[in-house]
Each structure stands twice: as C-alpha cells, then as structure tokens.
C-alpha cells in the first residue's frame, strides 16, 4: 500500500501518523496538508513540515485550554504529540547528541502530558523500579472507582514511545473495560533519550518488575493481566512470557520470531557473510552505501545502532542475532494471539513462524490482509479492525481462563 509517497518509508510513516486518527492522534486534512510540502525522500522537508504542523496544532490546543475549552484543547494536544513524534523520526544522524531531536521528543511527551490533564478518564504517572533507576509509565484507568479490572500491559517496539501507547492500544482498551499500564523500557522513548539505556534481548528482566508493580496496584486484577507487544514488542513480550507465569494472555502485534531476519532482508548474503566473519572493514562501507541509497535502510541502521548500543552497522547486525525465540518459544504456556500483516515490510512470515513454535500454548494466528486495508506492519491505517480482532479474542481468552 502506498500512501501519499512512493518512498516506502515515507509512505509507511505517513500512514502511521494518519492511522491514529480514530483515537484523536491525527486529522486527515492536517496530514494531507503537511505531506504536500514534503518532497520524496527529503528528510529535511519531513522534519520542517511536520514540526510546523505540530507547532501550529500545539498553539491551537493551548489556546483552547486557556479559554476553558477542555475537549478542544485535549484533542489538539494529542494530535500535536503525534506530529512532534513524527517530526523527530528521521533525525538519526547523531540522535544521542542532537538538540533538535531531544527538543521534539520533549515536546511530544509534554503535549501528551498536558492533554492528559483534560482527559475524561483517570490517568496517572507510574514509576517502575528497574535495576538502579526507574522506568516511566502511565496507568490508564477506565474510571475512578478503584475496582480491579483486567489490565493490558503495553510494551512498545524498535522506535515507538510511551505516548504512542494511547493510540496504539489504550484508547481502544478503555472503551472495552480494560485498564492499561504502559511504559518505556530500555532502548525506548525517554529511557533511551534521557537515561541512555539501550535494548536488551532478555526482556524478562524488564517485564518482571513491570508485572510486580502491576500486580500490586489495587485497580489491577492480578489474575487477568495480558501482555501486548507492539512491533518489536512482539518479540520482547513473548520472550518475557517464557519466564513469567503471571501472564493470563499474550497479544503479539506482530509476531516476531527472529529480529535478525529484518536486517538479513536488507543486505546481500555476501555482506551478511562478511559481518559474521568479523570483516567489518569491508562490511561497514558497503552497509553505508546501502544506507545512502534507501531511506528505510538508512533509518533502520541508524536507529538500531543507537537504540541497541551497537558500535557500527556491522555490529548492529550481529547484535540483532540475540533477539530470537529459538529454544525459548516452547516455554510459553499463556493463550496467545499472534497478529500478522500480509505486506509487512519488516517481519513478513515471522508470525507464522511464531505460531508454529508455540508448541505448549493455545495459539490463534490472525493474518490481516490488503483486501481489508490491514496488510501493513502493525496494521497501520486499520487500527479499529486490528483492535476488534485483538479485543474480541482477549474477551474470550480471559473468560475461558476465569
């Protein structure tokens, strides 16, 4: 599916931004007007135009709030948060030290936090003890009754953020009577940007303290906690569920068996061989050439080198091999929904692999297609259909486990 751009990465990221519209994260006219000023593959245009839209909508939101128009202010600030995130997306040349990237990320978080003050349902910040620091999170509540409810614990992916959790799952969950606990883990959002913590493959070390916090919250029914993994989060939560039996259900959107396969699909086999042999002197220049010629490859290699703490593009490809369910998947016993997308440009075929590997868990594989408008990675552009699929399954799975 091509959406407004021929460039595959620009197309997908524009669809991603627009796809949050059902939950107040975008307005289609704003997306169309922004895209009109962006030339194919021009990352400077992308940054400038999305930032300008974010700033304009941000001002609208603050103006409405100041005038006492709570709903209008909230809606505009939610859109601004998504647009600031989108503006920052390709700033990956020196992401750890780029003040503009840091400022856009801060604005995305701040406008979201400001919008939360005008929500109709309770939301409160949560700090999750993790090693010698804390992970930031939000607890989205159906109401203020304090009653324990089934709860979805959200884990994001390779480039998503805590603020994105509202559009990706929380808004849909709240409408259906589920609370949501969302957090940024190592390699993600503020934890990467402000704390400098990078991804780790043994994600059970992250989810265990998250579940400890969740189970202690009075609003959480500790017997009905579902893990939801978004994009690379599909690997992360599956890995965690193999080591923690408190999980009542598992949703993988999408299923990821072997993260390395995403990189293997970007590079010629001969270059992969050089990487495995440690011949970085020849592999790195070739990978740099591949990055120069492809927006998606360039972004993927740059983001991963930063977020996974790799020393080079070649090192990133090697590090990615550690993110696999091989030898682990058969430990998972929780009922699992594995989502898949027909045209997933990152993990095509991986959901089927995960479903086959889960030998000791009740598994349902849901492959959503182009015909349904849901064939893109994480079903961008078709979130209402994806959420219908997820939550109809989850209602049934938790009822059966009761």
Please describe what this structure looks like.
- There is one protein chain.
- By secondary structure, the protein is of the alpha/beta class.
- The protein folds into three domains: 8-115, acylaminoacyl peptidase (de novo design (two linked rop proteins), Up-down Bundle); 121-259 and 323-401, Alpha/Beta hydrolase fold, catalytic domain (Rossmann fold, 3-Layer(aba) Sandwich); 262-321, no CATH class.
- It has helices spanning 8-19, 28-35, 43-66, 70-88, 99-116, 165-175, 189-193, 204-216, 233-241, 260-264, 269-277, 280-293, 295-307, 313-319, 350-357, 383-401; strands at 123-130, 133-140, 149-155, 179-183, 220-230, 249-253, 336-341, 363-368.
- The chain has an eight-stranded mixed beta sheet, sandwiched between helices.
- A hairpin with a 2-residue loop joins strand 1 and strand 2.
- Helix 3 (43-66) packs antiparallel against helix 4 and helix 12 packs across helix 13.
- It is globular.
- The model has no long low-confidence stretch (mean pLDDT 96).
- Belongs to the AB hydrolase superfamily.
- This is Alpha/beta fold hydrolase.
- Keywords: Hydrolase.
- GO terms for molecular function: hydrolase activity.
- InterPro entries: AB_hydrolase_fold, FrsA-like, FrsA_esterase.
